[in-house]
Amino acid sequence: MRRAAMVLPILIAALGACSDEVLVVDTTVPAAPRALAASYYAGVVTVTWELAPAWDGEVFRVYSRRVTDADFFFIAEVTSCIQDFCSYQDLNVTAGQTYEYSVSAVSASGVEAQSDFTVEVFVPQPVAPPVPDATAVIALDDANYLTWGVGSRVASDFSHYKVYFDDGSEAFLLGETDSEGFLDLLAVKGVTYAYFVTAVDSDGHESDGSVLGEGTPRPDFTGEWLYDFFDVPASSGFRFAEEETTLPIVDGSSATRHFRFETDVNGWWLVPGAQTTIYPTGFLTTALKCGVAADALCTDLATAPLSGYLAQDVAVTTQESYVMRVIGNDGQFHYGVIRIGHLGFDQNGDAIMIFDWAYQLQPGNPNLAESIGG
């Protein structure tokens, strides 16, 4: 539907019985708004338009109607725009209805100039994706890694997830991601954090929150993580450290790295550096080390194999330990082991590997029990 511009006629009125003075009202038609558009998201219809080149500061009136209504209704007046772009959000909409919108520029004397056309928007039923599976939290060194299942993806219009921090009285949005993983780098050692995740569809409808997951970052080298070399090369390399004050994460291109982490279409890989050979198969374990208070079913790798190491890439999987023979700072061979706890992606879609590690300080000693980082 088009609404013709409303133009007031020139009004001439006698100011007195013997006066020749007249009152002239400006009837200049203002520049009409351009590029009218409207869209629906998360229960709100947003109407947008652009300022015409000849716009002279006039205000705008927004009109709306359900397509089943006979007439338009005035719903809002917009007095300010940003960088030649104007918008209005209509929250008073009902699911299952189609709405039609028109916008007019209004001069100081009340002359209106309508946009060249009207726009229609359908408001869908607010059916959100299924609630995400319970959030698991892996406590890292100065960070928490969140992961959950793919159950929300059964919705054909699934879009992404929202991740929240819950302080017990209020929830705060940490970020959004389209993968089932999120790395909270704001978490502080020794503090327990609770999180939940919601699922959002392409229309912005958000599910209820998942079951809370809690994690407390730990002040040690367990829970180390690396990024894929092709995603974040500067944080993809690793060198076994001989002291807890030495940062083991190095650039994936560093000549000093013992290995780096890579992914491709064929899987997840440990890529040895020039000073490293890797045992080609992993060992199924339940922990990096089983201490005296460990569960009776705990399985670790206490001693490294003495031979069979190769200078080639090794495919890896979770819940397995991988042994390496590396050249240490003393120029001699040392044994090191990593146990991979998780392979996944962070909120940016970057591949990430989370693991524990141990390193034997005595050259040539295959006993992995006495170590840094274990």
Structural summary, described in words:
The protein is 0% helix and 40% strand. With 374 residues, the chain is mostly beta strands. It has 3 domains: 34-122, Immunoglobulin-like (Sandwich); 136-215, Immunoglobulin-like, CATH 2.60.40; 224-359, no CATH class. Strands 16, 21, 22, 24, 25 and 26 form a 6-stranded antiparallel sheet that branches. Strands 3, 4, 6, 7 and 8 form a 5-stranded antiparallel sheet that branches. A 5-stranded antiparallel sheet has the order 18-17-19-20-23, with no helix packed on it.
Number of separate helices: 0
Spell the H/E element sequence.
Answer: EEEEEEEEEEEEEEEEEEEEEEEEEE
Structural class: mainly beta
Give the biggest beta sheet: 6 strands, antiparallel
Summarize the amount of helix as a percent range.
Answer: under 10%
What is the overall shape?
A: elongated
What would you say about this model in short?
The chain has 374 residues and is mostly beta strands. The chain is 0% helix and 40% strand. It has three domains: 34-122, Immunoglobulin-like (Sandwich); 136-215, Immunoglobulin-like (Sandwich), CATH 2.60.40.10; 224-359, no CATH class.
